[in-house]
Amino acid sequence: MPPKEHKQPAGRSRLGTEITQDTDIYTSDKYSDYSATIASSDGLDADNSDDEAEETMGRPGRFDITAPQELLDEIDAANSSEREAAAERASAASQKQRQQHARRELPASGSYAETVRKAQLDREEAELLAKLHKQSADRAEAQAGARQGSGKRKWDDQTPVHPSASAAAAAAATPRRRNRWDETPADVHVTAAVEDTPRRARSRWDETPVGVHAAAAAVDATPRRAASRWDETPAHGSAAMAMAAAMATPGAGARAAPAAMAARNQPLSDDDLDALLPAAGFAVVPAPDAYVPLRTPARRQQLQQQQQQQPALFHMADGAHAPRHALVASAEDALGGGPGALPPMGPDDVQYFGRLLDGGDDADGDAEAAAERQVLRLLLRIKNGAAPQRKAAMRQLGERARTLGAAAVFGQTLPLLMAPTLEPQQRHVLVKVLDRALLRLGDLARPHVHRILVVVEPMLADVADRFAQAEARQVISNLSKAAGLPAMLAALRPDVDHADAFVRRTTAHALAVVGAALGVPQLLPFVRALCGSRKAAMARQTGALVVQQTAVLLRSGVLPHLAGLAGGVAPLLEDAAPAVRTAAALALAALAQSAAPYGVEAFAPALPPLWAGVRAHSGRALAAFLAAAGHVAALMEAEHAAEAVRRLLPVVLREFHSPDEHMRGVVLAVARRCVARGPAALPRATLLQDVLPALFTCFWTRRAALRPRTAAHVVGATEDLALRAGAGAVVARLVPLLKDEAADLRAMAARATAGVLRAAGAGDVDGRLEELLVDGLLYAFQEQADAAHAPVLLDAFGAAVDALGTRATPYLQQVASALLWRLNNPSPLVRQHAADLAGRLAPAMHACGQDELLARVSVVLFEYLGEEYPDVLGSILAALGAVVSVIGVQQMQPPAGDLLPRLAPILKNRHEKVQEACLDVVGRIADRAPAHVPPREWMRCCFALLDLLRAPRKAIRRAAVSTFGYIARAIGPQDVLATLLSNLRVQERQNRVCTTVAIAIVAESCAPFTVLPALMNEYRVPELNVQNGVVKSLAFLFEYIGPVARDYVYAVTPLLEDALTDRDLVHRQQAAAVIRHLALAVAGLGNEEPLLHLLNFLWPNIFETSPHSICAVLEAIESCRVCLGPARIMMYALQGLFHPARKVRDVYWRIYNMMFVGAQPALVAYYPRIEDEPLHTYRRYDLEYML
């Protein structure tokens, strides 16, 4: 039915406004030559273009515009079947629209998020399918145009049929011309006969697009019903469908792209080839016999990870691709939880372990390949596996190293050790593997010495990681013992004169390790040959470096070889190469430092060139010669040392002004050694006039304070000078630095002041210097801004007050006023420092008789117990504890009765510093003045202490259980014991263990007879945790009370009998621990009978396999040996020493070995009597005479 035409009044727009036109310019038939329809620029909506045209033309309110009559006549001549197709498409579109409205009106079955997610999936699906259909349509149109010829233009195609009644008569006479917009693109293989057959038009949504592998014969000429594409399962060979399935999941684009590319790049099947190429004229060429598909490990690993991550979609597999999926399945079994479970690989592991993914079997290849695969499997478990997997793999690799072969083990381990992405922990376990393999392989490792050294030597130069250096030294040491000295020298000899200094240094270090492992005398000829080399100066330098590293490794062990090593290096001090001279001087310095204070005679040949070098050199070479001269001078006698110091001191003082930090460190160390030689070598006047001013001028600077190592050396040198020159002269130079603007320099001066006053005292500090010292320390304390400097300043203040003693009394009032004022400061850091200083000065205040001042400070501290910052509160509690420990609880202000109720709620604070300080105060009050606090408050503290048994720090738990003992002594054990016994029912093991310790402490504090009845009665509770807790409490109890346990042996024997026959392994283990402590406690006190009875119950447990259980049983048997004597244990052990079962013999021989170690002489009398044989005599005549 043609749409109705809506006329619009002339001169009026569709908005209703009047329009005036210039008729000379604009004619009334302006739009007569224009088309009424606009072709869509996108080919995706070609199927629905007719429907949209009808809807647009039939909608009221549109412009009344039409096409030229001749064009309309041509359109009306279209086939009537096209009108029917357009009507069907319109009805299908209307039906789909109604279905969409109906779906919108249905109630949502899920949440809003699910509804949004489903809508997003539908939208992405529609977009993707539209894109795929467009591509298929373009290809079909291009191929159809190529077959029909190129003389036809696309604008000559038949236009969409206009539903006009006037065009119906011309439909039969006018030949139908094709239009690319009016019908669904044909399939690639649709024949011309099919095109001529009239059929009902279909929409692009009606059926699945036909793939490239569809056979042309499947298309018949009869009209077909349009089928929906969702009614069929997508074909496996369609890469587009695989991509569509992968992209349909939200956020799966990045994951699915490689999988879709892999599906697209699959080999073409026979059907695909028949569809693409003619059957005649082509043949499938078979693959060569030796052809192997390129399957790189990276691609296999990437595909395996993607298939593990992405969900299983509706992309179905067929039998043609079974081998590929079988390969992936085998890789998943290898890397997942399959039969040969291996840990997962990282992206960097594929290049090393990629061979494990090819699905091969160890029995397929040769023996070497099988061994390499086994080693790779074990190495992967060691590198990436969990702890049990790693331990088992390391044990297997160590045991099977000789079976697998050195080539397989080292060929796979060494490249893995050189991986740049190796983590320190992984490198540690791999080096351990290498070390164990060397111990097992022995001389089989000799062909691989050079490869091992190439991997391990760089670890010797890793200064930042001392553990790596130790591991490398251990590996080279074991390699030297396995391969021997000739093999090691043959591998290291080419690198002694290498052009790279790093290689020479690591080679020298390795040679030193070889010498330490095999003995210096064996390596000494080679070292002397290196030092005497005439061809290469670099070889001589390497020889000197070997001597230096040997001295560093052996330390005092170098003394037996000192003459040979020093004699080989001494001629190098006059070598022509400066680098060789420097290395020789450093070697002599290391030898002298390791041999101190002995061996000065060995350095006699080196002294003349050494003094000449000190005068002649400069820079780094001079630093090396000064270090050697200083260390050698420390070995000399007093008169010779004085001469050496006289030669060295001018050079040292001159180099104090050197800008080189290395030189400054060397001369500072030499100056300390010169000062340490005493007044005979360096008089006090020289120190005060020359050394001390130069030291403070050159080293006490802000630049030196910013470097921690330099600052530590300067402080140490200052303390040494104070011991020789007196504390007054040094402190007088330090006091101005306490008021310097630089905080680091103030902290450095405070550290030096504390060290000087502790080492030299304050005897020569006059009154004026006292005032300046206290004022400077107080200024530095008040001006501190960095929390890291607080401990240094507190220590300096305390050291100064302790050194001054009662002389500090006039200054305490001023210091206390400053503290009280700073306790009210808004800054929490300032309040914390003030509280810390109050606790540090409390002993000094009491020593100076300032108890009233101390009481006033304690009252102020008590008022600040409501502090909100835990760090500040912990410092306040620590200061209160210091005051309580100094003046006692009786003189404490406020009294203990007022203080403890304030402390009970603070015990619930979770801050570790607060808990530890609060427990200290509560424990002191409970220990020294329990009567000042009512029992109700003590019980409140008990309940709060139960929570502290779960504290992560052991010191807090120990203080908590000790406080239980103090409280039980104060108020009696009954209430405290009831609280602790009820706590045995909790599930947390740490809490139960601490509770058992607390019960034992209560028994020790209040006598065992007050605790044992309730404890043994609690054992009757049929709960495993409670019974284990009771038995563990008995173990701790007998450990604590010692010999007092003799009165309770018979009382606990029935309980231990029941525990030793319990089915629970842990229960029997705890009972063995009780017997252990009980036997040691009553040894020699006449309680052998009950212990012998308990030994009969204990002995059947010797075959336990649990490590903790067997250790507890063997320790209990050893304790019974101490109590009962070795003879009785020997009678038990003889029954199984020669048992036919090896597992039984192993246990009995282990017990016998323990007895032999502990009481070997006592066993002689109890060995069984063996009759003599013709060739052997076993009788012990001397023993028989004695008996």
From TrEMBL:
Q: Which Pfam families match?
A: PPP2R1A-like_HEAT, SF3b1
Q: Its GO biological process terms?
A: spliceosomal complex assembly
Renumbered to this chain, the Low complexity biased-composition regions fall at: 88-97, 164-173
Taxonomic superkingdom: Eukaryota
| Record's compositionally biased regions (Acidic residues) | 44-55
One annotated GO molecular function: mRNA binding
Name of the protein in question: ARM repeat-containing protein
Q: Does the keyword DNA damage apply?
A: no
Q: Which UniProt keywords apply?
A: mRNA processing, mRNA splicing, Nucleus, Repeat, Spliceosome
Q: Where is this region: Disordered?
A: 1-26, 39-65, 78-119, 131-183
Protein localization: Nucleus
Q: Where is the composition biased (Basic and acidic residues)?
A: 131-141
Q: Where is the Splicing factor 3B subunit domain?
A: 198-318
Instruction: Report domain Phosphatase PP2A regulatory subunit A/Splicing factor 3B subunit 1-like HEAT repeat positions.
Output: 970-1044
